[in-house]
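User: Some background: our group keeps a shared notebook of sequences we're curious about, and every so often someone picks one and asks for a predicted structure to add to the entry. Today it's my turn. The entry only has the sequence so far, pasted here. Could you supply the structure so I can complete it?
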Amino acid sequence: MESSRIIKWLSTLLCALLFLKTQGQYVPLTRLESAVSKGAVCLDGSPPAYHFDQGHDEGANNWIVHIEGGGWCHNVTYCLYRRDSRLGSSHEMEEQTYFSGYLSDNQQYNPDFYNWNRVKVRYCDGSSFTGDVEEVDPTTKLYYRGARIFSAVMEELLAKGMDHAENAILSGCSAGGLTTILHCDGFRALFPNETRVKCVSDAGYFVNVNDISGDHYIEDYYSQVVATHGSEKSLPSSCTSMLSPGLCFFPQYMASSIQTPIFIVNAAYDSWQIKNILAPGDADPDGQWRSCKTNLNNCSPEQLNIMQDYRTQFLEALSPISNSPSNGMFIDSCYVHCQTEPQETWFKSDSPMVGNKTVAKAVGDWFYERSPSREIDCTYPCNPTCQNRVWESATASYPAMYTRVY
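Assistant: Of course. Here's the predicted structure to add to the notebook entry:
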């Protein structure tokens, strides 16, 4: 009986692996050793890293550069914690990663971009690639060099053929999505005028709203991130000349300065932002929001009203993007965080849809200018195509502060 169960389990696992293989592929890790001499290193001083799958046929001269998510560290304590993990050291990164969704090489599951050169840049600096502090504390041995990493990796990719790109996209998820917004114009500047360059930010439009206790939790947090990493010089001067550098880490305050076309993929009820900006643990000491954040079906009418107000504030914060006709957006009413890499939310028969478009269709139509894509969903729980995230236990929605953002 036991052996038959094992055989059945192995058969199921094999089928699952074969199914995954049809949707994408595993891509090996490349550590950029030459960047070390430039001081472009992860928090622990190790070289930055990326995964690269070469394009072919009509996509041979087209490039997607996708930035991994992984949150931020806002002080020495939490940067030290990250230093010895994959979010702070390339020595701790897995030697290969799976490309699916937006990065898939399968035409069926990624019809517009499957044969492009596809790059996933690993995230190991904790500042959305904005930090640049020359001094290294001999005690902590922490390197705040995110901006240098971004430059070094881009130089490497240009040398690999990206300098001849006909089309190029900078994209990213979560903290990588914020990286995309902050570096969008800098990425555009790497290419000749004739190259079509655009940016796609997935779950990276973090908004500055008060939490449920009325405190400015995320505003204070971002101010500490910017101060710790010396990020001010990487932020647009058009913003920092008028506002504090910490505020210029928020897209809503600096996006109006972006000249490059940009597409925002975001849930209006982004699960990370609900859990960590609107209702962080510190603002909910009695845990009244714990069950709600685990499963929206558990939310009280009052909690849902608060989230509807959050959605309103989120849409208002998008105005710098919506004001430009060259930009696009896909804002669904799902409870989810990051939708371009998972195949289930990017493009499948049961993927979330807004205006009869999947995320993949909306992004492709916008990039190739086949039709405008400014899809804004109705309010929760109106959309039956949503794959709302449900955590298995209440504690899953309360990770420690240093792992909150991913």
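Suggested note for the entry: Residues 12-20, 393-406 have pLDDT under 50 and may be disordered. The first helix runs from residue 2 to 23.
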